[in-house]
Each structure stands twice: as structure tokens, then as C-alpha cells.
Design a protein that fits this description.
The protein has 189 residues and is mainly β. It has one helix spanning 95-98, and strands spanning 2-3, 12-15, 18-30, 34-43, 49-55, 59-62, 66-76, 79-84, 90-94, 110-116, 119-124, 128-136, 150-155, 160-164, 172-176, 181-185. A hairpin with a 3-residue loop joins β3 and β4 (34-43). The protein is flat, with a radius of gyration of 19 Å.
Length: 189
């Protein structure tokens, strides 16, 4: 059992006969003592999304999932190929299976794949990923190291993010996969 306040994205809970993957959690405080937790969840059996509101102290059934390390090998059209790090078995997942993680997938990336009774549930990315910026507006003299100037940049995966004005194309940056935002410039190796 887990209380609603402790639920986090990526966790699977069971309500009735439904297994629900938590995608997003918002905390709403109403007055002095009342706190509600709004949770967006995806039913892992039929893949429909639903929003529910819980009292912060409401108890929910927490489901323990099998979790294995896999290396992302490559993508061919809509299929993603992964290799189990323990037994070297390969699995194929569709872009629907991978979900939004597709925005940060690069070859040799190690991810956690959660399964329940051998059914794929979720692909969990590392919290921070180093990615190359392939396109960005040019740097303008006077842009400082703070966030006064923000511009669009395209990552090597094709995903667009906002970065500070001093970040240029062909630089590596660290992306926080929980917030989907630029975190910092990557250190030079």
C-alpha cells in the first residue's frame, strides 16, 4: 500500500482490476488542511488515459513490477530494438510501447524496462541524458550565462527544446528526462 501523496510518475498502482501507470502528478492545496492529488494515469492493459483525484492520505495498492536493464540498439521505422543486459536476448518495441521516451533514444543508451507478468509496462530513461544539439540559432554577443535569452534548439533525436542563448549547435547538453528540459552544458571529455 502507498498513500496518494507518495505516488510518483512511472509507478504502477492497482485500482479494482485495473493496472494504472502514473504519468503525471499534481498537488492541489485547498485551504489549511485539505490537499488533493490529481493524477494522470494510463491503463496498461487497454492503454487508455484517465485523470483521477485522490485525497492526499488515500491508500492505493502499489504493484511491484519486474525491472530489467536493456540497451537500445537501433530503430527501424516504427520498431525499436533492445538487448537485455543479462542474457543478451533482443526484444522489439513499437513507438507506442516506447511512448515519449522516443524523444531521447540514442544507440547504446541503457534503459530500465518494467514488465508485469511478462507484459511490457514502461520504458524508464536515466534522469539525465547527454545529447548533441544539431540545430540552433547562432550565438549573439551579449548573451550571458543566465536565462535572459532563450532560443529553440533541435537535439540529435529530432526533439526541440529551449536552451539559453549561449548554447550553440554541435555542443553536447544534459537533458533532464523528468522535466524534458535543458539542464546544463555537458562537460568536455
Amino acid at each position: 500500500m502507498i498513500i496518494a501523496m507518495k505516488v510518483t510518475a512511472g509507478r504502477v498502482i492497482k485500482i479494482g482490476n485495473e493496472l494504472l501507470l502514473v504519468l503525471k502528478k499534481e498537488i492541489h492545496r485547498w485551504g489549511r488542511w485539505s490537499t488533493n492529488i490529481k493524477v494522470r494515469m494510463k491503463n496498461v492493459l487497454v492503454w487508455n488515459t484517465t485523470d483521477r483525484v485522490f485525497d492526499s492520505e488515500e491508500k492505493l495498492d502499489d504493484v511491484i513490477l519486474d525491472r530489467s536493464k536493456f540497451e537500445f540498439l537501433y530503430q527501424s521505422w516504427d520498431t525499436f530494438y533492445f538487448m537485455d543486459q543479462e542474457n543478451y536476448e533482443q526484444i522489439e518495441l513499437t513507438s507506442d510501447d516506447v511512448g515519449d521516451a522516443v524523444n531521447f533514444m540514442t544507440p547504446w543508451l541503457i534503459v530500465d524496462i518494467q514488465r508485469y507478468e511478462w507484459k511490457l509496462i514502461w520504458v524508464i530513461l536515466p534522469t539525465n541524458i547527454k545529447l548533441l544539439i544539431t540545430e540552433s540559432e547562432p550565438w549573439v554577443k551579449g548573451n550571458t550565462a543566465d536565462w535572459k535569452v532563450i532560443k529553440e534548439a533541435t537535439l540529435e533525436t529530432g526533439y526541440n527544446i529551449k536552451v539559453p542563448g549561449f548554447v550553440e549547435a554541435w555542443e553536447y547538453v544534459i537533458i533532464n528526462t523528468e522535466t524534458w528540459e535543458y539542464s546544463e552544458r555537458a562537460k568536455k571529455d
